[in-house]
Amino acid sequence: MLLHPRQRHAERLGELADRRTARAEPLEDGAPGRVGEGCESQVDRGMILNHWVHYNRAQGSAAYARRVSLRWTLIAPVYDRFMHKTEEGGVRELRRALLADATGRVLEIGGGTGLNLRFYDGAESLVVTEPEPAMLRRLQAKAREQAQQAEVVQAPAEDLPFEDASFDVVVSTLVLCGADQTRSLGEVRRVLRPGGRLLFLEHVRSEDPDLARFQDRMNWLNRLVVGCECNRQTLAAIEGAGFTVSRVEHTTLPEAPKFTRPLIVGAAVSP
Length: 271
What we know:
Layout: H1 5-23, H2 39-75, H3 79-99, E1 104-109, E2 123-129, H4 133-146, E3 150-153, E4 167-173, H5 181-191, E5 192-203, H6 209-226, H7 234-240, E6 244-252, E7 262-269
Parallel strand pairs: 1-2, 1-4, 2-3, 4-5
Antiparallel strand pairs: 5-7, 6-7
């Protein structure tokens, strides 16, 4: 069932290369280039251009990734302490109630430091992903203590290294505020079996217009400090990804800044 992330990336790169080669067309006679240049030179130039474009994108992506990793390297050691009041204020019980429905083959995306691990009593099997090395180390340590049945995998929510229809339940708690929602929800839908469930607990854009405008003003700061968006319309994104929301509770994130308090907790069914 499981594929190593590098295997999955290699497969995708191979498919992309095949499509680019299939689209390449020969040059017309007399087109600028070396003497005798034909289809091969067109492919060569296309490949050079593609390599140049993707190299520059990769450089930018790598720089961004380094900044994100640095942020989580700094946050990871204090994350549990940072979340302590919020967890004690009621989020822990929200997690417990939500995860009572996590049965069968369960995948958690963005497991962080493992605050959900103690609540997977009904899971037949459990896989937890986390992309950031600093968080991953803490997740692995906590899994050894609290959920020895869990398999911990380093992978982003946007590129899950699992086969289609591999899981009965996917869990996302405080993840879709920072991950690419379109890609992540597409991957969640892909790895869920038909009729599988997405269990979610996410802070979102307020339904109150005044608070929503305040969230818009504060979003740059939230993104700078903790790397997530406080004004995302996550419920609409879940529905837009093809899920049917079966239940949702609108509540608040306790002991949190006003602009991050609006919270949704619920479940959605994959088609």
